Amino acid sequence: MSTATEAAEIPTVLDGPERRAYWAVADCLTIVRTELITILRYPAAIAWQLGTPVMFVLLFVYVFGSAMEVGGGADYQDYALPGMFAMTMANGFMGTAVAVAVVKEKGVMDRYRSMPMAPSAVVSGRGVADVISAAVDLAVLAAIALAVGWRPDGNLPETLSAFALLILLRSSLIWVGVYLGLLVPNQQAAGNLFAVAFPLGMISSVFTPPAMMPDWLGAIALWNPVSSTANAIRDLFGNPVPGGGGWVEQHATLMAVVWPVALTAVFLPLAVRRFQRLSS
Amino acid sequence: MGVSLDTASLDTASLDAASLDTAQWAVLTEGLRKRYGDKHALDGFDLAVGRGTVQGLLGPNGAGKTTAVRILATLARPSGGRAFVGGFDVTRQARQVRRRIGLTGQYAAVAEMLSGRQNLVMFGRLFHLDKARAARRADELLSTFGLTEAADTVAKEYSGGMRRRLDLAASMILAPQVLFLDEPTTGLDPRGRNEVWEAVRSLVAGGTTVLLTTQYLDEADQLADRVAVIDRGRKIADDTPAELKRAIGGDRIEVVVRGTTDLPAAVEAVARVMDRGAGAAEPAADREDRRVTAPVRDRVAALTEVARTLQERGVAVEDIGLRRPTLDEVFLRLTGHRTDEQSSGQKADERAVTREARALERAGTEREED
């Protein structure tokens, strides 16, 4: 049979730090390719992923928009759209969690782990694919926002910085997603995380300035990482920024960096430990 | 061909003094233990699998089969004992082990949204083949496993048997020295099972060592050179299927007569040839089924003798034959989940649980008629 003869030609992979680093990247890219093909082949998921923010844009611009008041005579649309960018990035961790849960549940994770590939690629590949798909989401959202009349008023570096902060938030939440995906028993349970994620995205400055909420709720919204990113990009886009929130709101740009770094610092080790515990 | 890979992989680790002795076995475990909380999934499990053989691992759900495979495939760490694959320690030399094994688990672990070819190319790349080689290997495997026509179909659209074959193909990319098949046909229909069996047979012909876990006794019987029976985390038997069957009393002669009145004559005829060394003193007779059975040693002579005697006495015989005990009977006997099988004619055993009954039904009886 051809299996044995062909295999005899296969050279043994050499060990060593450079080789390992090389394969960590190469394996990661292989997984990225796989994940992107999977996303492209699953139209329902694309529709769902892009459909939700689009629906929100339309709802908040055309349905609630006229009734919403954010103070200072600012246009609600200019307030809400950057918020929705931030919320879309924040909710992306759900996609990561579900995808990780599927890979685990269907035995693909076991196959990866029984192979001589770089173990980190399982997670890094997932992360890179998620960032790419988040960038596409952002591009689509921005296009829709532009179509309904939203304009970034900042200069180019400011605008690019705003998008970078959005991607930073999404990237840090990959680790939350990986951790949760490994934690839950199956795909369904991962899907149920939506019930938690949805209000967490909403109790923020995304749709309403926290100052207009009851005190206790406003405090949560104020410290919500999504709020910091939303406020920071509003500032960078030259869109209306909620006022009166004190230190956190005044240092939104700083916090839009601090929060993702903190989330990564907490959840990256948790995710890695969870991944290693699969062996127990 | 075959196990020629061993000579090619002269890693320094395999030259360790400690592993020289272990390297002669494809798989070797010594007192392997695995605890999950209070439960001992493996409780001192020993196994030695010769290179190029098919070792069956037979046992009910929860016996420890999957745990053993997970430890050997570097997916789980043992709580105690040692395990080697191709002479490499599964805990300390996991990387070397991973280069030499293939794993097909209870699920078809393929990317559902990728085509068969894309799956194999992807796994080939992850096994660090270059692009051209991964593509060539994918095409070879697709053809080996009869998936060429479905090569560009998304795996999601595959039948259960096709998915398992794709899964097997993915396990075979580097032509592993040892292939772990963890219940490879669970949940498949008979056709899917046959497809997988055929695929496994062709791998074995290529020299791969296979460790196969199954709850289906006929599967072990079909594929395995040796069968280890595992129950509650320990090995309770390990032998060739033929030896295991012989161990519970060897072949039996079985006579079914037309009328109940002929039963005593049949009992008398069978009693003359039966092997009394196998335990029973008298043939077992079942009035309802009009069946007489007894262990025999000299199979053909016994069959001829009984047939002649019955013919001389004018007994109308409905059926006569030699019957070999099935692995099901071996298993039930060894695990004590079911008692003596002497009265082979007995109907549904109330004590046998449904699963066992189903397995029995599937395995059927092996009958050799002269």
Overview of the structural elements:
The complex is a heterodimer of chains A (280) and B (370). With 280 residues, chain A is mainly alpha-helical. Chain A has one domain. Helices cover 75% and strands 0% of the residues of chain A. Chain B has 370 residues and is of the alpha/beta class. In chain B, strand 9 and strand 10 (234-239) form a beta hairpin. Chain B has helices at 5-8, 17-20, 65-72, 94-98, 116-126, 131-144, 160-171, 190-205, 217-223, 241-247, 263-273, 299-312, 327-335, 354-363; strands at residues 25-36, 39-50, 54-58, 80-85, 88-89, 101-104, 178-182, 209-214, 226-231, 234-239, 252-257, 284-286, 291-295, 317-324, 366-368. Chain B has a six-stranded mixed beta sheet, sandwiched between helices. In chain B, strands 12-13-11-14-15 form a five-stranded antiparallel beta sheet, covered by helices on one side. A four-stranded antiparallel beta sheet of chain B has the order 2-1-4-5. Residues 1-19 and 338-370 of chain B have low confidence and may be disordered. At the A-B interface, helix 1, helix 2 and helix 5 of A face helix 5, helix 6 and helix 8 of B.
